[in-house]
Write the structure tokens for this entry.
Amino acid sequence: MDIKSAADLKVKLFADGADLEGMLKMYAKPWIKGFTTNPTLMRKVGISDYAAFAKQVVAAIPDRPISFEVFSDEFSEMERQAQEIARWGTNVYVKIPVTNTRGESTRDLCRRLASNGLKLNVTALLTLEQVCTIASALAGGPPACISVFAGRAADAGVDPLPLMRSALDILAQYPNIELIWASPRELFNIVQAHSIGCHIITVTNDILAKLDLIGKDLTEYSLDTVKMFHRDAVASGFAL
């Protein structure tokens, strides 16, 4: 492995979350290149005023890309929400789901929004057919991202590496579009994204907290593990 520390990573690290305090901690780290959020993460931390939260985040983090997602299921309302979200800051990317809940593609909506100059992050993709469809809609427009949920593919028993490599091959002809490795499940996914030349990986803070382990000597790590087991057994007062 050619990675001895986080500084060796070529893939851009985006912090994924909706806790402002946690986002600001990540903002203080120069190797965090952007941020992503979604309605599920916001609900988990109890956010009730979407716009107020988002504007607070943009005011605190004005100079790195941040994605905020529309939440309507109807294309006309998605479009209105997207235009509103885009006005929150020049660093804002509008997240558009690849389909609505009826499985209807947002391709035409993405094409209209991109032609109007909105920076988009099209999300929840899991197939190469979806990548081709959305890439063609975003072609030649402003900077955009396509988020392929590699972690969810792995959850379904599918090796995400061939999927992500093929997505990169497709996007090679679209210089305005970057590929996001979304929903990683472990730190090694960052190494995988780096190894295939993925542009971005979006990672939750609990995984980012393990970054210092990259390059750690495994014999030393083994000893640390033994010490942990011993320390916890002693602290628990176990006896046989």
